[in-house]
Amino acid sequence: MGTIGVIIAGIIAVGAAVIGIYNGLVRLRANVDEAWSGIDVQLKRRYDLIPNLVETVKGYAKHEQETLTKVMEARSKATSMNIDISKVTPEMMTQFSKAQSGITGALGKLFAVAEAYPDLKANENFMKLQEELSVIEDAIQSSRRYFNGTVRDYNVRIETVPSNIIAGMFRFVRREFFKIDEAEKENVKVDFDSKNA
Question: Which one of 54, 63, 113, 175 has the minimum C-beta count within 10 Å?
Fold first, then answer.
């Protein structure tokens, strides 16, 4: 093989490597977007459940209007935030996380209020909503873990050699992790022993 053949083979090899790295980055970025979509679906399920939960409690706990209002305000604040995960900044992700923590805190207070109303705790609809919320909270945590794992893999790839060169050329940028506040690290308290109350 002559010098020209070696040069052509080298160019082809470099081109194939660039294409392979680029396609890998695209796959990782798509995984991050898909993982965020999973979080979005679970949060929507949570948002949709809250009005039913509030209405159920309202029928039994008429004197707890302030707590019910705070739950709906937290839901409203969280649902008003639209995140484009491809353009999210650390500040936006922090605000989003705080809004989610606001819902968790408000729901915790709602369940604390429910403890004072034995008829509510024994209500079949309320128990079903509690159980559904518990399942959703678990799904949200699972979706967060998956999302953060895909973000980690993507960020590592765009920051390591030689991928970082291709990432820089094609403007692949870091993605932000979905961090949670310390207060939100505990699940919403759901008391299934209410059947015995």
Answer: 63
Instruction: Using CB atoms within 10 Å of the CB of residue 181, give its burial: 0 to 12 exposed, 13 to 18 middle, 19+ buried.
Output: middle
The Cα 5–Cα 7 span in angstroms is: 5
Q: What is the pLDDT of residues 33-57, one digit of tens each?
A: 999 999 999 999 999 999 999 999 9
Which pTM was predicted? 0.84
Residues of the domain holding 176: 3-196
Would you tell me how many other CB atoms lie within 10 Å of the CB of residue 156? 11
- Give ∠ CA 92-93-99 in degrees, rounded to 5: 90
Backbone dihedral region for residue 3 (phi beyond 0: left; psi -120 to 50: alpha; all else: beta) = alpha
Q: Is the pLDDT of residue 192 over 90?
A: no
**Looking at the predicted structure, is the pLDDT value of residue 185 above 80?**
no
Confidence bin at 195 (pLDDT 50/70/90): very low
**pLDDT tens-digit readout, 69-88:** 999 999 999 999 989 999 99
